[in-house]
Amino acid sequence: MLAARTVLIGSATFVTGLPAAGIVVETTPPATCVPVVVGVAAALALCAVFAYGLGVRLRRGWAAVLIGLTLVAVPYAVTAVPLLPDEIADWLLRLTPAAGFAVKQTVVEHPQVTAHYAPSAGYFPLPGWAGFAVLCAYTALVLWPASSGSRGSARTPLRKPLPGSSG
After folding, report:
1. Strongest mean pLDDT among 25-29, 117-121, 135-139
2. In this predicted structure, what is the pLDDT of residue 74?
3. 52-85: buried (b, 16+ CB within 10 Å) or exposed (e) per residue?
4. Residues with Cβ < 8 Å from 138, sequence gap 6 or more?
5. CA angle 63, 125, 118 (to 5 degrees)
6. Which of these, 41, 45, 67, 111, has the minimum number of CB atoms within 10 Å of its CB?
7. Where are the alpha helices (DSSP H) in 25-127?
8. What is the pLDDT, as a whole number, of residue 60?
């Protein structure tokens, strides 16, 4: 049941995120635009599955929303504006699920080019595939115990049988 719900949530978010990402992505060549749009829609879908997994694991919707926003939206927001030193912003976008949004990066760092390669300038410290892998790892980390817990709870009785009864 958990797998079916995660597929449904992820698919619905991907399908709605695809046109939304297509609208907001800057005008770039199609070879660059298509992977970015698909990557952003996939990252949004994975964030939705991550939040659902938190809700299943914690059994509290408000706590799942709060933790999900704290781990995904807050790091992304505070690194998008220059509120933090670049080193701290880099580490936030390496170690939190917000790293998944590195799929929208089209800037490549070149050692011979002098530029400000920082999250506040739109640069992610990880390549797109690595950031997406971080988000996948967080999602798997949340879903794995939730799925194993749901199987285990089906096998254990909800109440103890009475002494002398047969079931």
Report:
1. 135-139
2. 94
3. bbbbbbeeeeeebeebbeebbeebbebbbeeebe
4. 50, 71, 96, 97
5. 100
6. 111
7. 30-58, 61-68, 74-80, 86-95
8. 85
